Each structure stands twice: as structure tokens, then as C-alpha cells.
Amino acid sequence: MKVLIDSSIWSLALRRKTVQNKIIVRELHELINEFRVIIIGPIRQEILSGISDSRIFKSLKEKLKAFEDFKLRTEDYEFAAELYNSCRKKGVQGSHTDFLICAVSILNKYPIFTTDKDFDNYKNFIDIELYKIRDN
User: Fold this and answer.
1) How far is the C-alpha of 7 from the C-alpha of 80, rounded, in Å?
2) For 3-123, CATH number?
3) How far is residue 124's CA from residue 3's CA, in Å, rounded to a whole number?
4) What does the mean pLDDT of the chain come to?
5) Residue 19: pLDDT band by 50, 70, 90 thresholds?
6) Does the structure show a pLDDT above 90 at 21?
């Protein structure tokens, strides 16, 4: 099964170097080696945004070229808007990108690998599957 990797996971693996993230980064590497990784353009944009050093930006951009963007369709955006509206009516706020991630996840049955706690909140109101790190 393919796994939709959120920017929070990519950021841990590509930008931050801490010991506490080793398990998450190792799991991402395993998913990459198993050819199970899915990325969408808006996640790529989030990862690359905010990097002021052009050398780091170019290096990161090159690393990410190894992963082709999952092709988004009109129905992905429409369903994301539905999810956004539904959650908003229930008092749940979120970004448009988060709800696009949720839409792609639901429509394609891809679990979402993330450390972003907002997705735990969304899960209470919409039917997303969050990826759980395997026991090693």
C-alpha cells in the first residue's frame, strides 16, 4: 500500500537533524526503499518554502526530484473543499492544503504519514487513515 507523506515528515528527514526523530526518519527511508511514497505538489511547495539559503534550497529541490508528484484531479480539489466546509461547520479549522491531503488520502485509500496533530483532530470528523510506524 502506498503512503501519502506529509511535509512534517519530509521536514524531519530533510531539514532537521535530531536523535529523537530517528524512528520516523528510518520509517520514511523504509517506505522509500519499498517504493511506497506518495507526494503531492502542495506538499513539495510547503517543504521548499521558507528556505532562505539558495544552496540549501537547490539541494533540497534536487533530492525531491526523485519523487514524482501524484497527479491531482478536479475531484480532489472539490472533495477537499467539501471536507473543509464540513469540518468548518463543526468548528474545526484547517488549511486548504491539509484538506487536500485528506481528500487525496480518502479518495485513493492512502494512509497519511504525519506528525501534525491537526490530522488527529480531523480524524474525529472525517474518515482518514493515519499511518502508524511499524514495529521493528
Assistant:
1) 17
2) 3.40.50.1010
3) 20
4) 94
5) low
6) no
